[in-house]
Every structure is written in structure tokens, then in C-alpha cells.
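TASK: fixed-backbone design
INPUT:
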């Protein structure tokens, strides 16, 4: 389906209502008055960035002239201009407000010439430096009776970000640490970068990380990820297991840690982990309104409000996020809606402790959901996508649906027990529920000629190669998690060596899972059997289903539960005048699976308990000039406590899979942040392999049959590069490159596949994203951002790894414009995704989105 312009022809009624409401709200809402500020004293380059983030106002200042200047602390309520003037007292500089742009200008006292902007921190969108403010040192905080927010070593300090460049990470060690000092590959995607992507899902963000690809994408967007050749990569939400569907509305930051990471995250594949961090309350009042609309019936509205609760003097903070979206649909008949509500509150108990409670509710409702790729089967083995078919082809039937709901409640306490010891405790209670009905199988070659002859005359010439099997399948799955975690972080010095020690424990009390399934009988001629489609003839594509779910036959009903526990310790050491950084950690994990109940057959598998010890060690040495060398070694494990299936029947217990990885490389972090990044080479081996699930046919009742295989070994080795380059204050560039050779050293079932590539692992990827935001001149109100991504060939079928999907290249482009209206600052962005309308397969089960466009409008209060 090609992009259709003008966009207004495709706007939904909801989009017009959202845009009109936003304009009306902006027109009647009064202009911003006094705000609450909490900016500590310090170096001007740092404190002015913090002030810009809190005020939501762009600041222009002379970077060179102010180098080394220190500003005063500002804590309390004031207008932005008054607060900045207080900070500048005694520095020899003063603040004025530009009458044209409303920006605040810092200049030497007595001079009238405005100064240039200091750098990309003052983003094109005022206030993009939002992030949680941290407590200043106690000595600086005692001059105020107002409460301040605790500086926690367990939270990333977003003030260290420089535009797209993420300065700190918490995902690698659970303690906030500069990425340039970590002896491993870590990428942090900032809120500014995420906003500019206009992401459909999480993959639209992490695809810019080298070595990350999508695997087995469900047609509706349930994505599994591959990192460095290993599929089903762990996706974490604030360090806990995430959900099947992930919307980016409530995401502040995404971090990707490469290599075996079981030290902190338990049983995962050895390629790495993706951890996204949700938004939290902030101490400065701000209201962010966004409305968007586009082609393919897309519309979206987001309200994000945060700040101190009135009358609490900053002791109680709140955040409330609401989102509704008509999901862009690229196939005929499909329609979907999303809804998110995410309230949270932070109680600043004292200058040493705070408690945050947040809740997130998410819904996605699909009607006649987007269908997957139709594959050609030969002898029950998928071979290649069937074609040609229209790019907007769908095999969904009338009445097909998919409903998904997730809820997560988190309580998080951080406390400074002493000047050198901090405590972090978290409780999580989450649940999800997913129900769907699907009538398309998405495959040819699955039914016999005799079955075809019951429905088509010989003159039709239909053979199994062109007949698409259809079945009516209903399935309901639901589950959840209850977990707790407690960590202590200590800092101390021994003989000139700075040490940080994390000791923690994590307990997963329960992870229940239930699944039920009903199918129609797979017996040609039965009234409940659906007539196959002749994919050559659209007139045979009958989408009606003359019976409901109640007529279907129960074929599966299972119940399972598991629990786990972990004890871990991580120590980092810095020595030799901060040139040497060493990381060492060790963890003990235990996982228990309760019996899996087959409620139809009234049988149960035996319970299993497995444990693993996981070490990790690495070192980084700064050789000088902003260049460091590093190396590391780590292990991962997958307990694999479930039973291996043969045609859906549990047979024998799986074996634990152990991954061992080593990595070495260079890190760049040149003064001023103009160039930073990582060049790395890695080698990861896993044996026995993780469980590989293959499609082994279709049962007489219409159930798809799966068989699990395991054994042998997998090897992944390659090189990666990720660079952030800021050649000028106006331009930011991100570059990524990956060359990966991931293959079966020994295939678990078929020696003929020894040396065959692992699934969903492109042989090469390249990405380049840039943003140009002029600060001066006639184009100062505009911004231009865009990127190109190349994805090489990759294997896509576990039971036929020699089959390859072709390489593809996509291009995205965004044009931004800043203006003032209704006494407000606005940002409008026009985004085109897949600008060249490249047709490609995202995985074996879904294809990439065609070209589509989005127009968004945002304002802040």
C-alpha cells in the first residue's frame, strides 16, 4: 500500500478532535508563572543544562567565556528569568529574555550581543533535557528547608546526556556509571532520540543498535529480538521481565547491554539484554500535549503531566500519562487501537529517602488483525514466502480478533543509609492477558489433493502448491509475575583505589501461566471445516466463518508456574588517577518449575529445580587522548526446565544451556563529547543449544504441531561499531555497523546443517542517523532528521536454516518546525517512514511496513 497524500484525506475523526482540543487548551490556558526549581551550585556548563531541563526554556550562553564559572544554587519558586538571575549572581554574567524567541540569553554584564548556543543539549525542542533531578551534596542542600530529591546510585543521571549521546547507564551493573568507563558494549538511547523516531514499537528504537534484529515478529507487533545471533533476547522493564507488546509512550530511556548478562538478569540467551526505563515524576511542573495523525488511518494523542502536588512544597510529586492511538494498518480490513494510562507518585520522605509508586495499564484491541506472511511448505517444511500476492494481502476472516491487556504495579524505595551506603528495594506485581481468534494458517502445501477436490472442480487446476489451508483457532493465554529485589551500594576508598560494591538479592515468588486452545476439526467435508483459498483467485477468498468459538473443540488446556531466586555481587574499582577501571561480579541463581498440568488429559510433568553460578569480569584502561582499551569475559545460562515436545507431546527434559562470551575493543570519548563510541570484537559460544522449535506439521484437528530439538553448539563471532559524532552545535550523527557470523557448530538434529547460519542474524547491518538543528540564521526554527538502515541477508526458519531472506534498505525522514502561537511554543514534525517504499520481510512471519507519513504537533506548559 503506497503512501497517499494529502494526509488530510486519511485523518480519522479522532485526530481532528485531538488537534482541535489541543489548540483550544493552549488558547485558554494561562501563560506559565512561577515554577519550583532545584538546581544545585556547580559548574555553569552543568547547572545551566539542569536549569534548561527544569524550566523547559531554551538558554543561549557563551560556552568559552563561561568555562570554569560556577553558579549559585536555586531552590524554590520563581519565574524562569528570576531563577536564572539568582543563579548568576556574582559570576559577572546576567540573564535577559529575547523578545523574539522568548529564549533566555546569558551574557557578560554590560554587553548587548547575544551569545551562541552552547551545544546540542539545548535541543531543538525546548525542554528536551527533561529527566529526574538528583539531590545535590548535603552541604549544598542545607541552605534550604525545602525537600530535595535523593541522588540515587541506582538511577541513571540524565543530566550527563548530550543530545542523542547517553552518558550513563544503570543496566550493566545496576549502579549508575559512565558508559565510557564500562568494560563492555553498552548503548543508551535518550528520550530525545526516542521522540525523534516516532516509533511504532520498541524495535524502531533498538534497531539502531548494531547486532540487534527482530525475530519471529507476530503480525500484530509482538516482537522477539535477536542480539549477536541469539534469538529470544531478554527484554526488561526497569530490570524486570517485560510484556509481549511494548509501547514507547512511557519510556524515558532504552539501554542495550551486549554479551552474556546473566549476572544480573538470570536466565537469558547470551547475546545480550534490552532494558527500558519508564518515566517518573519530576520536581518541576510541566504539561506536555502531543497530537499526531497520518496515513493508514493513524492517529494518536498523548497527555503527560508532572510536577509537585500543590501545597506539599515539593515533598510529593506526581506524573500522569495517558495515550490513545489508532494503530497504523497496512493490510485490508485490519484495525487496531491502543490505550495506556500510567500514573505515578514520588514521596520525598527526607533528604535521604524517597518512595515511588507507579502503575501502568496498557490495552491493544485488534479487529481482523494484520496477518502474517504466507509460506510455501514442502513435506511439512517451510521453504520460502509464497508469491506474488498484493502487499496489503490479509488472510484474516470476519470475526477474527486479538485483545491484549497488561498491568504493572511497582513500589520502589531508595534510601541513603549513610554517606557511603545506599539502599534500593523494589516490589513488582504484574499481569497480562491475551485472547485471539484466527482463521488463516498462512501456508500452502499443507493440505492434500483429495481435500482440495472436495471443494474445487478439476477444471480449477488447484493443487496443494497454491491452496492455502484455513482453520478456525481460538486461544487464550494469561500470566503474571510477583517479584522483589533489594540492593545495597557502597562506596569507599582503599589505598587510593575507589571502590563501589553492589550486593543484592532478587526473589521471583510466582510466574503463573495458563493457556487454553480450541480448534475446528481438520476433516474435509465436516461442517466446521473451512474451505481452502485458491491464492491465484481472489474470488475464492471467502472471509466469512459460519460458526462461532463455542462450536470449536478443546485441544489444549495447560497451567504452569515457576519461581526463582538470586544472590549477586558486583564490584567496580577505579585506580591510577581514574585511568584503570575493573569490574568483577558473581551470582548464584536457582529456578524452580512447578509441574505443568495438562488439564484435558489430567496429567502433569514432574517439577524441576536447577541452579547456576555466573561469573563476569572485565577491565578498561584509558590510554590517553580520550581513547580506552577494554576486555571482558562473562557467562549466561538458560535453565530450560520445561520438557522437550515431539508433535506437541512432552517427551524428555531439556538440558541447561550455557553461554560463554568474550569481548575486546576500543572506546572513544574525546573532550567536549564531539566523538564517542565503541569498536568491539566478540566471540560467544552456547552449548548445548537453546531449545529450537520447528513446525512438524498439522494435526487432524487443525492444531499446528511443534517439535523441540536441542543439543550441539552455537557460535557467534563478529565485529561492531557504534559512534556518536557532534561536529558542530547544530549537527548530531549516530553511526552503527555490525558484521556477524553466527552459525551451528553442531546442529542439534541434522548434521547436514552444521555450519548453517542461526535464525534472524543478518550477516551485516549498517545504520546512519543524523539531525541538523540550526541555532542561528533564517533556518533557526527548522530541524531536519533522518536515517538509513541496511539489513543484510539472514536465515529465517529454524527447521530450514539454509533459506535466506534478502537484504533490504530503509530510509526515514523528519522535518521539524518551531513556532509560537496562542502564547505557546509549539513543535510540528512531519515524518515519513520507509521513504523509498522498500518492500521487505521483517521475519518469517511478517513483512516490513510500506511508506507511511505522520504529522505531529506538541506543546508544553
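OUTPUT:
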Amino acid at each position: 500500500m503506497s503512501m497517499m497524500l494529502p494526509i488530510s484525506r486519511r485523518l480519522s475523526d479522532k485526530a481532528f478532535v485531538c488537534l482541535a482540543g489541543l489548540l483550544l487548551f493552549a488558547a485558554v490556558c494561562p501563560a506559565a508563572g512561577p515554577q519550583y526549581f532545584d538546581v544545585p551550585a556547580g559548574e555553569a556548563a552543568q547547572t545551566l543544562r539542569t536549569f534548561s531541563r527544569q524550566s523547559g526554556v531554551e538558554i543561549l550562553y557563551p560556552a568559552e567565556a563561561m568555562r570554569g564559572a560556577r553558579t549559585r544554587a536555586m531552590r524554590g519558586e520563581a519565574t524562569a528569568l528570576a531563577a536564572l538571575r539568582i543563579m548568576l549572581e556574582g559570576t559577572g554574567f546576567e540573564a535577559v529574555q529575547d523578545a523574539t524567541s522568548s529564549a533566555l540569553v546569558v551574557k557578560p554584564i554590560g554587553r548587548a550581543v547575544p551569545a551562541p548556543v552552547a551545544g546540542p543539549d539545548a535541543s531543538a525542542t525546548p525542554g528536551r533535557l527533561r529527566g529526574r533531578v538528583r539531590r545535590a551534596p548535603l552541604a549544598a542542600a542545607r541552605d534550604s528547608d525545602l525537600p530535595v530529591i535523593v541522588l540515587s546510585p541506582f538511577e541513571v543521571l540524565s543530566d550527563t546526556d548530550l543530545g542523542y549521546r547517553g552518558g550513563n547507564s544503570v543496566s550493566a551493573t545496576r549502579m549508575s556509571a559512565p558508559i565510557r568507563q564500562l568494560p563492555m558494549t553498552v548503548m543508551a538511547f535518550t528520550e530525545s532520540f526516542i521522540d525523534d523516531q516516532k516509533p511504532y514499537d520498541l524495535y524502531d528504537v533498538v534497531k539502531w543498535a548494531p547486532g540487534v534484529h527482530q525475530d519471529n515478529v507476530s503480525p500484530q507487533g509482538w516482537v522477539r529480538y535477536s542480539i549477536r545471533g541469539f534469538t529470544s533476547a531478554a527484554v526488561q522493564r526497569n530490570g524486570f521481565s517485560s510484556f509481549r507488546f511494548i509501547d514507547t509512550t512511557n519510556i524515558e530511556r532504552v539501554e542495550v547491554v551486549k554479551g552474556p548478562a546473566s549476572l544480573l538478569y538470570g536466565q537469558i540467551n547470551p547475546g545480550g539484554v534490552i532494558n527500558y526505563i519508564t518515566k517518573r515524576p519530576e520536581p518541576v511542573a510541566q504539561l506536555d500535549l502531543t497530537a499526531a495523525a497520518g496515513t493508514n488511518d493513524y492517529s494518536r494523542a498523548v497527555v503527560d503531566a508532572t510536577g509537585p502536588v500543590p501545597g506539599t512544597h515539593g515533598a510529593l510529586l506526581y506524573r500522569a500519562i495517558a495515550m490513545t492511538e489508532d494503530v497504523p494498518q497496512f493490510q485490508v480490513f485490519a484495525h487496531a487501537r491502543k490505550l495506556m494510562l500510567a500514573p505515578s507518585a514520588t514521596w520525598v520522605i527526607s533528604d535521604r529517602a524517597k518512595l515511588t509508586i507507579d502503575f501502568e495499564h496498557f490495552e491493544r484491541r485488534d479487529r481482523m488483525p494484520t496477518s502474517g506472511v504466507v509460506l510455501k511448505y514442502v513435506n511439512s517444511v517451510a521453504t520460502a514466502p509464497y508469491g506474488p500476492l498484493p502487499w496489503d494481502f490479509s488472510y484474516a476472516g470476519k470475526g477474527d480478533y486479538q485483545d491484549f491487556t497488561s498491568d504493572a504495579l511497582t513500589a520502589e524505595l531508595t534510601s541513603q543509609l549513610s554517606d557511603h551506603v545506599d539502599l534500593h528495594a523494589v516490589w513488582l506485581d504484574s499481569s497480562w492477558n491475551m485472547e485471539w481468534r484466527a482463521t488463516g494458517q498462512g501456508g500452502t502445501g499443507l493440505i492434500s489433493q483429495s481435500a482440495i477436490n472436495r471443494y474445487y472442480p478439476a477444471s480449477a487446476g488447484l493443487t496443494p502448491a497454491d491452496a492455502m489451508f484455513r482453520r478456525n483457532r481460538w486461544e487464550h493465554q494469561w500470566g503474571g509475575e510477583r517479584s522483589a529485589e533489594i540492593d545495597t551500594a557502597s562506596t569507599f576508598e582503599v589505598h587510593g583505589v575507589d571502590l563501589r560494591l553492589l550486593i543484592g538479592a532478587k526473589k521471583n515468588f510466582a510466574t503463573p501461566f495458563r493457556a487454553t486452545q480450541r480448534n475446528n476439526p481438520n476433516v474435509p467435508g465436516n461442517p466446521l471445516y473451512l474451505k481452502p483459498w485458491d491464492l491465484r483467485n481472489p474470488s475464492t477468498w471467502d472471509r466469512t466463518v459460519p460458526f462461532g468459538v463455542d462450536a470449536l473443540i478443546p485441544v489444549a488446556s495447560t497451567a504452569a508456574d515457576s519461581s526463582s531466586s538470586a544472590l549477586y555481587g558486583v564490584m567496580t574499582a577505579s585506580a591510577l588517577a581514574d585511568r584503570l577501571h575493573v569490574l568483577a561480579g558473581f551470582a548464584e541463581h536457582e529456578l524452580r518449575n512447578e509441574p505443568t498440568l495438562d488439564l484435558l488429559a489430567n496429567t502433569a510433568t514432574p517439577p524441576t529445580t536447577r541452579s547456576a553460578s555466573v561469573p563476569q569480569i572485565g577491565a578498561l584502561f584509558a590510554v590517553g587522548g580520550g581513547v580506552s582499551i577494554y576486555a571482558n569475559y562473562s557467562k549466561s545460562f538458560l535453565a530450560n526446565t520445561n520438557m522437550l515436545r515431539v508433535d506437541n507431546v512432552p517427551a524428555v527434559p531439556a538440558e541447561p544451556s550455557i553461554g560463554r562470551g568474550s569481548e575486546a575493543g576500543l572506546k572513544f570519548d574525546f573532550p567536549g563529547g564531539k566523538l564517542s563510541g565503541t569498536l568491539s570484537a566478540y566471540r560467544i559460544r552456547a552449548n548445548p543449544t537453546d531449545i529450537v522449535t520447528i513446525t512438524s506439521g498439522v494435526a487432524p484437528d487443525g492444531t499446528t504441531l511443534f517439535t523441540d530439538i536441542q543439543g550441539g553448539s552455537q557460535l557467534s563471532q563478529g565485529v561492531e561499531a557504534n559512534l556518536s559524532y557532534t561536529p558542530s552545535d547544530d549537527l548530531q550523527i549516530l553511526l552503527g555497523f555490525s558484521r556477524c557470523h553466527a552459525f551451528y557448530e553442531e546442529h542439534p538434529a541434522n548434521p547436514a546443517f552444521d555450519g548453517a547460519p542461526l535464525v534472524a542474524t543478518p550477516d551485516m547491518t549498517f545504520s546512519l542517523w543524523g539531525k541538523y538543528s540550526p541555532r542561528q540564521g533564517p533556518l533557526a526554527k527548522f530541524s531536519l532528521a533522518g536515517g538509513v538502515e541496511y539489513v543484510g541477508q539472514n536465515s529465517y526458519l529454524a527447521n530450514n536454516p539454509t533459506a535466506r531472506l534478502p537484504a533490504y534498505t530503509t530510509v526515514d525522514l523528519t522535518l521539524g518546525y518551531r513556532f509560537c502561537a496562542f502564547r505557546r511554543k509549539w513543535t510540528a514534525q512531519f515524518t515519513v517512514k520507509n521513504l523509498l517504499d522498500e518492500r521487505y520481510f521483517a521475519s518469517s512471519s511478517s513483512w516490513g511496513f510500506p511508506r507511511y507519513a505522520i504529522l505531529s504537533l506538541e506543546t508544553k506548559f
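COMMENT: The chain has eight helices and 53 strands.
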